Every structure is written in structure tokens, then in C-alpha cells.
Structure prediction request, 337 residues.
Amino acid sequence: MDRENMAKTLRRYGIDSFSVYKIIDSSKNNDYRLNIIIDNKYVLRINSNEITEKRLAEIDRLAERYRKINVLAPRLFKNNSDKYMLPLDSHIAYVSEYLDYETCEHMDKHIFAKTIMPDILKMIGRFSSEFSGIDLSETMSMWSIFELAPLDEKIDEKQENLDILVDFLSEQELPELAAAVVAANEESRNMLKKIYKNLPRTVIQGDLNSSNILIKDGKFVGLIDFNMAGTEVNVNNFCAESNGFPDFTNIKEENIEKVISCWLNEQQQNLAIILSEYTLNETEKIALPLYRNLCLLSQYPNVLTYMSLFQRDKTLGEKVLCNILDIIKRKPPICVR
Prediction:
């Protein structure tokens, strides 16, 4: 897009002049995505025809809710037709606020966990406490189980991850271990199905990766990129976001239980921070350990960590996964309020 057409489009949104701009082209194959940063105040977004006016309105309302709890989130602007979206040939355009802050993208993960993550976890609990059940979206978040998120095809993401792990174990000629993983997954899912519809849920930003988290002076201040926003069961979101970082770099046969215990303690501490801002009801107290089981077995970074360990040392990988299955069978207590 040249400057003249850019200016013409921006005038439709009440932006009559601008000085500098920066074009970021993140298109892939047939998915056209052009983000044009205008004077470090606005972003003109030009995409393929894959977003609707209704969806943009949902995102704008959600961002407003985050701002109500003092979390920065970009506003969307309406054009002179009182619409967010503007057709442009075979594409669509819309304009959002540009938040000129640093992200956590290049921050060391251990520093991030100690300095930024606690505030994010408190925000997760507070947001669900204040906005649970309000203005729920038909679009599900990427954490969704049973109901499919936009990028899911026939099964939810966690089931897809688990199937990858099971296929991998079969390739490792460990059919009994593969069957045990399937059985543990099915047991938790079947129990959840009985109470799933009664669990409180909230529309969330849905993609809290480091490139979407804004910081100022080393402190968490806001969120960007609401494209993955959707409705999610609160306790599923809590378990997913409190997963922590499974680090098996220095694991050995003699310290398996210690390393896994450290990881589970990290999860407990993270969950306790969330629950300092949110009170579980009785049904959620039943559901929480079941969702935790599914996360242990099938959350994406966990599955990658297990498979990587198997490739490094098959015997060690088998013992670690057996230990995880034993933990699920024992159903250890989870801190609740």
C-alpha cells in the first residue's frame, strides 16, 4: 500500500495526517497480513477476509474489560460508517491503538517467571473473578477441551497433543505405556464431561506468550494481540497458565522424583497466586485436578519435553512418564481456597 492510499484509508478513521510509518508484513502463503504502524500511535491492519465485524466488536469489548482492571489493551477505532472494518479490494482493513511498550519476547524465561509471571497470574485470577460469565463469546480459546477453537479441526488441541505422544510411544515400541497414557487421559476427560457444562467460564485474551506481554521498567503493564481471544472454562485456563516450565535438562534416574516435584511445586505456587484473587466453587474444586491431569499429559510444552527426553535416553523417558502417571493415579491435593 502506498502513502496516498494509506492516507485515504486513515482519513476514514478520523486520522487526517501522519508523519512516519513502518510496514510489517507477516503474510504466509494465502494468509495476507500487513500491519502498518502509524506515528507510534495507531496500527493499520490489512488482512485476508477472515475476520468479521462481530468478532472485532467482541475483541474491543474484551480489551475494555482488561483496561478496567488497569491492564493496558489496545482500543479499536470505528470508521466514518460507524464500523470497525473497512473493505479494501479482496482484503479488509481496521485500525487499532499502538501501545509503544517493550515486550517480554527476549527476556530470560527464569527472570520472566520470577519478576513478571506473578503479576500475570494475579491478573488472571482477578479478571476471571470480575468478568466470569459476562458477554461470553461463541469463539472458544485455544485451551478449550471438548468444544473446538478456531484452529482446531476434528479434535481439541490437547487431544491432538496427546495423540502425538501416544503415536511416539508406539514408535518407541512401548505399547503398554501408550495404553496407560490413553487410559489416564480418558478417565479424566470422562469425569470432566459430567460437570463441564456447569463450570464457570470467562472470555480471555487467550495467547499469553512473551511477545504479547507488555512491560515498563521491568513490570507487567499490558497485553496485545487479541486474535486468539475466546471463551474458556476458568479452571482449565488456571491449570494451563500455571503449568510452569518443565526443565528436565539435568534429570537423572536418581533425581527423577526431585525434579518432577520441583516442577509440581512451581505449578502449585503459580496456582496459589491465581487463587489469591479467585474463589473456587465446589464444582470447580472437583474439576481442577482433572484439568491438571490433562495438562500434565497433553499440554504442548510438556509433550515436547517428554519426547525430547525419550530421544535423549529412552529408559529415563519411560521412568519419567511412569512417574507422571503414578502422580495422576495418586491424585495429590491441589491448593484451593
